[in-house]
Amino acid sequence: MNIDYSQFYRGTTNIPSYGSGAYKKDTLVKYEFNTTDEHGNKVMDKMSREETLQAMKDIRSQYGDAVIVEFSGDGMAALVEGKKGSMVLEDKEAMEAKNAAFQKDIVQIDNSLNDLPAYSGMYGADKAVASALENCGKEEQGFVYDIIRQNFLVGNSGSMTEEERQANISLGMKKAEYAAQNFIPEESREAFLEAMESIAKLASAGKADSSGNMDYGVAKGRYLGHGSNLVQTTNALDMMRTMDKDAYAEYQKMGQNDDGGLSALKYLTNWYAGAVKKDSSMVDTYEKQSEEYVEKNVKDRELDATFADIKTESMAAFLESLKMFQNNNPNFLSSIINRELTSKFWY
Fold first, then answer.
1. Is residue 344 within 8 Å of residue 179, measured between CB atoms?
2. Which of 101, 165, 196, 336 could covalently link to 176 via disulfide, CB atoms 3.0 to 4.6 Å apart?
3. pLDDT tens for residues 152-189?
4. Which domain of life is it from (predicted)?
């Protein structure tokens, strides 16, 4: 079994709320181990139970504590069958019912996130994108936010080389060009493309730690309202994490209390009030860090041009040119291109 599992990667989705404090999960990462592809062509042999367990161990080791890794596909059948074999009929039925309910919940979460906004933390760019999309349909909004989540600001790049990560950003920009040409209102197109390019440059300048977790160098965006009425607010928790690591560590401990997060919320509120009273310029300093980072590392950055020849004037042209790229480069960024070519948006 090849220990490079990138071909089985099926995307990353942000989870609005799952757990709290140190146990909070904010990302769902999906892997699908099928023995054949969607056309019936053989991809891999059926894994043994031991190979399945090793795959789960290897993949989970790439992600931090804030991530849930979901495994699916007929390649995982050996593990499931191994567990079923030791169960009585009643236990098997209970397990199957529980698993079916869980998979249903996952699908519901995934669908609900498709059109939720994805923000970069650069207010001007975020508002320009939100404004351009406010009168578009949910599918179109989901297409653009998917660019930001899946092509630009990925949470973990452990399944990609840096060359592939930069190329993925390049593909995202071509998708943004498609959006601008095909469904973004004409009066918003220029501002939309400028904003998406800014977010792409921010993504390009990002750095990964030893586990592949990405740091994009700017404060996490926190907003009220939507569309052209988007209003930026201070993310007190990220400010604590950035500027008072001892307090942040204590806050994380609070998350272990069995009180629904109330003690952690109270601690955060008291910390913010005390910190601002002690240093009235703290918020300005926190926000200025992001501005300085963008000016120094993002503004003049050159973007990768791997997908520069992808056509964007129509859906048919986009898919045809992307398939042509894949035929000419069959082993490059294959899982991401396959994901794009099978996206429901195009069909």
1. no
2. 196
3. 999 999 889 999 999 999 999 999 999 999 999 999 99
4. Bacteria
CA dihedral 39, 333, 107, 50 (to 10 degrees): 80
- The pTM of this model reads 0.65
CB 54 within 8 A of CB 5: no
129 shares a domain with 33: no
State which amino acid sits at residue 170. Answer: S
Cα–Cα distance between 146 and 345 in angstroms, integer? 11
Total domains, the chain: 3
Residue 230 C-beta-side C-alpha neighbours within 13 Å:
24
Nearest to 329 by CA among 154, 147, 164: 164
| Domain assignment present for 107 | no
Neighbours of 214 (CB within 10 A): 17
Torsions phi, psi of 215, nearest 5?
-125, 120
Do 88 and 193 lie in a common domain? no
Model confidence over 240-285: pLDDT tens digits?
988 899 999 998 888 777 777 788 888 999 999 998 899 989 888 9
Q: pLDDT of 73-92, one tens digit each?
A: 766 655 544 444 444 555 55
Q: 56: domain range?
A: 6-96
In angstroms, the Cα distances linking 10 to 17, 29, 230, 320, 335 are: 21, 8, 31, 22, 7
**Do 176 and 83 reside in the same domain of the chain?**
no
Q: Which two tokens stand for residue 163?
A: 């060359």
